[in-house]
Amino acid sequence: MKLKIVTAALMLSAISLPAFAADEFYVVQDVKTKKCTIVDKKPTDTSMTVVSPSGAIYKSRTEAEAGRKTVKVCTSN
């Protein structure tokens, strides 16, 4: 019985984990084109650079869009 409960708890946490990770948004700039965009995953390659102030992580796309308007390298394009 305990094994069933533990297995169910692990499956539930595995299913819900991606939902918690989806509330991170970053303002990034393409290194080649200098175009700023908003992404929901932190860039791991060198083609994109996080340009939000102090590497800020936004909780919603709306917050990230507002933050992009304050980033100097994004507003000068």
How would you describe what is shown here?
With 77 residues, the chain is α+β, with helices and mostly antiparallel strands. Helices cover 42% and strands 16% of the residues. It has 3 helices and 3 strands, in the order αβββαα. It has helices at 2-21, 61-68, 72-75, and strands at residues 26-30, 36-39, 48-50. Strands 2-1-3 form a 3-stranded antiparallel β-sheet. The longest helix has 20 residues, at 2-21.
Question: What is the secondary structure topology, with strand pairs?
Answer:
Layout: H1 2-21, E1 26-30, E2 36-39, E3 48-50, H2 61-68, H3 72-75
Antiparallel strand pairs: 1-2, 1-3
Essential attributes:
alpha+beta, 77 residues, three-stranded antiparallel sheet
Rounded to the nearest angstrom, the distance between the terminal CA atoms is: 61 Å
Helical fraction? 40-55%
Number of H- or I-type helical stretches:
3
The largest sheet is: 3 strands, antiparallel
Which regions are unreliable across 5 or more consecutive residues at pLDDT < 50? none
Task: Kindly estimate the percentage of residues that lie in beta strands according to DSSP.
Answer: 15-25%
Q: What is the CA-atom radius of gyration, in angstroms?
A: 18 Å
SS elements, strand count:
3
Can you give the mean pLDDT? Answer: 80
Shape: elongated
Structural class, please?
A: alpha+beta
Spatial order of the strands forming the largest sheet: 2-1-3
H-E order: HEEEHH
